[in-house]
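FORM 7B - TANDEM STRUCTURE REPORT

SECTION 1: FIRST PROTEIN
SEQUENCE AND TOKENS:
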Amino acid sequence: MRRPPLSGLLALGLFASSIGHAAPAGRAAEVLDHAIIHRTVEAAAQARARASGSGAGAGSNLYYHGGSSGIGVETAPKIYLILWGSQWNNNDPSGESLLLQSFYTDVGASPWLNSVTQYCQGVASGTVFCNGAGTPAGNQPAMLAGVWYDNATAAPTQPSQSQLAAEAVRAAQYFGRSSGSANASVQYVVATAHGNNASGFGTQYCAYHSWVKSTLGKVAYTNLPYITDAGASCGANFNGLGANAGITMVGGHEAAETITDQFPSSGWLDANGAENGDKCAWLSSGSGAAADVTLNGGIFPVQSLWSNKANSGAGGCVLSY
């Protein structure tokens, strides 16, 4: 089954939609461009209930959507973390900065992330199994390529998507990645500080990833709010994994999705517009339930990721590959 590209639409985990975020009274809702959101725990549960009631299910295996200018996956992923705004100064009660740095440093070459390597680019649109064709997504060590403490001035109080995208482009300049080829396989994680998150966070989404066209080429970025500000809605104590569980669960979700769909939605998605993280988000029981995994430098809570090859090719959520 094939479907049109989702560029310009807001893909809500299991289904695609062009709606915007809830906004304060008197303020227009923001409609996200090229963005795929990571639903909150409650929103994901509601979507699964609707899908089950309609008989639609969670979609099929992921398939390739043709790529964008030849790029569909990150073949040698690099992650740059941007701690945006002076609001970060002496304002990190959950220790999210260091936890993210540790996780992004250790996640490369892990069995948890290795399922991304079954997806590739350079194959025909509609491909479900690469089987050695094309160029696979990467899972190499030391994915964290740099951290920018951009905290000399304040970030916007409630940053819009365009402001987040502009910060990602500034980060690309800061790190000297000044062309489309230099930004292939690169993702910029724009993390905002405690109490300084974009509209819709914690009520509709926990994070989202997107891309923007710039003079530096296409720049892929993630809006990563201060996850613990949303409490249980974005993973606090999810599955008994601790108050800070959502930080790496959400951070890992977005990193894996960007690796397999760098420029949404031209990479690997299912028939409902869900990526490898969406299909396995917030599972509390059964195969693929969220759990602690041991990476090179420690133990981190993560969600499972979708593997087309699981269950003899029927697909499923896996914590290792």
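SECTION 2: SECOND PROTEIN
SEQUENCE AND TOKENS:
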Amino acid sequence: MSTTTEKAARPGEAGDAPSPAPTGSRGRKPSMGVQNAAGWLFSTPFLVLFTVFMAFPILATLVMSFTDFGLRNVTRPWEANFIGFENYVNLFGDEKFLKSLFNTGYFVVVGVPLTIGTGLVVAVLLTNGIDRARTFFRVGFYAPVVTTIVAVAVVWRFVLDPSDGLIAGLFSEAGWTAPDFLGSETLAMPSLIVMAVWRNVGTVMVLFIAGLQAIPTEVREAAKLDGASVWQEFRSITVPLLRPTLLYASVITTIGYLNVFEEPFVMTQGGPSDSTLTVSLNMYREGFNFFHMGYASAMAYVLFVVIMGITVLQLRLLKDNTK
């Protein structure tokens, strides 16, 4: 009798009635409205910070670019006069702005290819050409990226000093007189470009190392078996497979160089004779030295349009080759 009772009590045996589905709050999934509310709740701190410190200043700057906003309007912004596109029209008649636009273009056209090319060569050497102390070299090339601009400026001022600098000592040993790199209108901008390449090549190097490590080894081995030389392998295999990385590196490097500010601000203050004055440095002067904030805001949006245009052009030229 007891055996029959035990069998009947065992769950899962044939003939047992299925257990009812759980009811109550534990068995219910939260509704879509509750999930959305929870998502908005958790994202609220970010949205508040983004609105206060990003979205509102961007919109305020856009409005300011159409006004004569100046120092007198800092405490009374509503008293600024709306002048339409006058700031934008005046920009393209301003010789100093046109000079800064040319200097920025010069910096980008020369600096970006040098940075990309140097970073690619270093990445290839550290991936395939150098076996010993590879980590040491990688850290050495990346160290300038995380070094503050003040420390970089001190080092490069010593290197480029025409009287007691490192290069001046080398010139002196050869019986020559070292040029004043930062005091010459011809040499000041190339000197800043060299410093910028030295400072930023580590970032590009890391990107290319990651791209090179993603290339399948079977492809390279097949090319070697077919008798391809090192140059043929690099040109026909490495570069085409690195095009997505090349696109990303080119875009971020170009954007950074179009916004160049720290190098001329710390090293030359835009001189000599505005030969190293860039758009960002000119914008800083107009906004915070002369308090022409509406004019500086218009300058910022012209630079924004230039950056957007060049970025779209790069994406169209390189993206088709990355598919």
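SECTION 3: OBSERVATIONS ON SECOND PROTEIN
Confidence is low (pLDDT under 50) at residues 1-9, 11-15.
The first helix runs from residue 2 to 9.

SECTION 4: SIGNATURE
Preparer initials: ____
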